[in-house]
Amino acid sequence: MDNNQSIDIILKYFPDLTEVQRNQFSALYDLYTDWNSKINVISRKDISNLYEHHVLHSLGIAKYINFRPGTKIMDLGTGGGFPGVPLAILFPETQFHLVDSIGKKVKVATEIANAIGLKNVTTRHCRAEEEKQLFDFVVSRAVMPLTDLLKIIRKNICKEQNNALPNGLICLKGGELENEVMPVKHQTDIFALNKCFDEDFFETKKVVYVTITK
To answer: Which helix (DSSP H) or strand (DSSP E) does residue 112 occupy?
Structure first.
């Protein structure tokens, strides 16, 4: 197994994983490779970069916030399970609800979560507008503009606060964000992932956090 396909890059930034977590992360490569050959959730040429471009990228959120046990999180537009599955491995006492409008992608996320024994993951095939449950945070790697995302998920954010940061939306985005965050600038924080990850891939990658007040 070459370095792109091992969890060394995860251990580089998250050295304190339990044996269970290491095994779960290690299992992802074969599982995603197998599922991806049937249902395309990651571009074929990018599957060899699974750990850097998808798993570690998802875990960038954990460099911004440490979710407390019992926190409820919705992963909107999860695709094959990003960022929800890697975050669920890292935070076993946090509940993750993975939602996507494309049924076959939800199937991949569900099967992979089950295969590695994640007890803190639920999944649902629906449009975001249909999901009525309440959560502390919504996380997303979807490419939808921030203001559109906020309109959809405002209804899903609960009032009670359980974490060091107020409840809200946490997105993984790349590139120039100034115009996109302008309408919600006063309630937004942008965290550059190149502060904590050395790889070139993260040079323009950001965590965008938007507080949602009720």
So the answer is: helix 103-115
In 77-114, which ranges are E strands? 95-100
Question: CB–CB of 72/93 below 8 Å?
Answer: no
The SS3 of residue 207 is: strand
Relative orientation angle of helices 19-38 and 103-115, to the nearest 10 degrees: 150
Distance CA 177, CA 174 (A): 8
Residues in the chain: 214
Q: Please state the pTM of the whole predicted model.
A: 0.96
What are the φ/ψ torsions at residue 70 (nearest 5 degrees)? 90, -10
Q: Which two tokens stand for residue 196?
A: 């904590």
Q: Are 200 and 174 in contact (CB under 8 A)?
A: no
Which among 210, 12, 179, 36 has a CA at the least distance from the CA of 109?
A: 36
Q: In what order do the strands lie in the sheet with 188-192?
A: 121-125, 95-100, 72-76, 137-140, 168-174, 205-211, 188-192
E-strand spans in 26-120?
72-76, 95-100
**51-110 pLDDT, tens per residue?**
999 999 999 999 999 999 999 999 999 999 999 999 999 999 999 999 999 999 999 999
Spatial separation of the C-alpha atoms in residues 124 and 133, rounded to whole Å: 11
What is the b/e burial string over 6-37, where b = at least 16 CB atoms within 10 angstroms of the residue's CB?
Answer: ebebbeeebeebeeebeebbbbbbebbeebbe
